[in-house]
Amino acid sequence: MTAAAFDPQAGYVVTASTAFISFNDQTFATFYQPILGPVAFSFFYALKARLLPNPTIANRTLQSDLLAQVNAGGQQVLEALHRLEAVGLVQTYFQHDEIGDVYVYELQPTLTPEKFLADNLLSILLLEEVGEDAFERLTKQSRQYKLASSNTSLTNVSHNFFEEFHINSQSITETPQAILTARKQSPVEKQPQLTVGMSDDFDWSTLIHLLANQPIVSADLENNRDLILLEHQLYGIDAPTMKTLILRSIDLQTNHFNPKKFKQIVASAYNIVYSSTTKVAEKEAPVTNKNSELTSKDQELLATAKDYSPVEFLQVLKGQTGGYVTSGERHILTGLVAQEKLTQDAINILTWYVIIDRGNSTLTANFVDAIANNWLQHGVINGEQAIVQLKTFNKQAQEKKTKTPKKNKWRKTIKEPMPEWSKKDTSELMKKASSQEIAKLRERIANRKKK
Description:
Blueprint: E1 11-16, H1 25-36, H2 38-48, E2 61-62, H3 64-70, H4 74-86, E3 90-96, E4 101-107, H5 113-118, H6 120-142, H7 161-164, H8 169-173, H9 177-185, H10 204-210, H11 218-223, H12 225-235, H13 239-247, H14 259-270, H15 296-307, H16 310-321, H17 327-339, H18 344-357, H19 365-377, H20 383-402, H21 426-429, H22 435-450
Parallel strand pairs: 1-4
Antiparallel strand pairs: 1-2, 3-4
C-alpha cells in the first residue's frame, strides 16, 4: 500500500482473480485464521462482501465504510491488510486520478490444505502459532478422505483423455480463434509468491559433504533447499547443526527427509525462553568497524548483531528482561528476513532499539515497519548505517527538546492609565475634609435626589 496510514477518505474497489472461485471458507478458518488474527479475518470477509459483478473504477466507495464494518481503527485495519497481502490472499493496487486516491483490492483463493502444509513460510507460521498437537490434528484433517488402508497392491486403471474423447486433429495443431480470443481476454493468473530469492550465505557444499555417508535420499535435500535456507536465515543455523537437525527428520523406514518433522524439530529446538541475564554486548566478538561516528560500545553492539540470527538475537534480548519471543514477533522477523531489504545485523539493531533502547516489551508490526521504511528511505540497509541513523535521530530529538521556546509575538503588554487619586501623596489622601467641603458635598447629594 502506498500510503503510510489507512485513509478513510480514499476510494476502494474490490475485485477477485479468476481463480477465486476455488476459495474455501473451511480452509480459511482452520489454516489461515490462526496466523492472521481476528481483525484480518474479519477484514477479508468485509472485502469479500463487497464484490460486485464486472467492477469498474467508477464503482469506488469510501474506505470509511470498511472501518465501520470491521469496527476497528485505521492502524489495526492497515496491519490486517498487510497480513492478508503477506499470505497471498489480497493483492493491492493504487492510483490517483481526478476524483482522488483509489485502491483496488484483488482477492485471491486459499491454497488447498496440502499446498498450505507444503508451503515453508505458511506451515512454519501455523506450527508456531497453534503448537504441535493442533498442527498434527490439522494435518490429519486435510487427509481425512485419503485411503487409510496400508499394504495394498492397487494399480491405476483410469482411462486417459484420448481413450474417451476424440478431437479434430486440425484443432490441436491450429488453435481455434474463439479459444485464442478467450485466452487473451482472460490470461492465466499466477498465485502470488510468498517467498523471494533468499541470499544464500549458507555453506551448502559443506552440508552436502557432512551428509554424504548418511542414510538419506540425496534428492530430498535439493528438493527442500528453500526450506533449509529459510530456517538458516531465521535462526542462524550453521552446517554442522543443520546436519543434526536433518538427520533427526529422516524417516527411518524409507530414509526420506520429512519436511513437516523438520519444521517441528527446528521450532521446538529454537523456541527457547531465556532466563539468563547475560547481556548481549558482553559476548566477545572481533571489532572491525572503523567508523569514527561509532563509540566502542556501538562497535561492540554492531559486532554482536552480526554474530546472531534475528530470532536468536531477540531471544537473548528477551532473556535480559525475563520475557520470551512470541509467535507474532517470529512472524515479524520472518517477514523482514524474507524481504531481503535489510541485512541481518540491521534487523538486529532495529530489534535492540525497540526492545532495549525504547523499553518496549514486544515487537509490534506497525512500529517495526515504520522504522524499517524510514531507514530504507534514508538509504540504511546494514547495521553500521542503522546505528548512525539512530544516533542522528536521537541527537535531533534532544536538540528539539532542549531548544528554548519562543515567546508568542501576538501577546502585547497593555498599560492601563492610572487614576488621578493614585498619583497623590498618601498624607494628602488621608487629610480630613473642611466644614465648607462637607457642606458642598451634602448640597450635591440633595440636588441629585430632587432629580
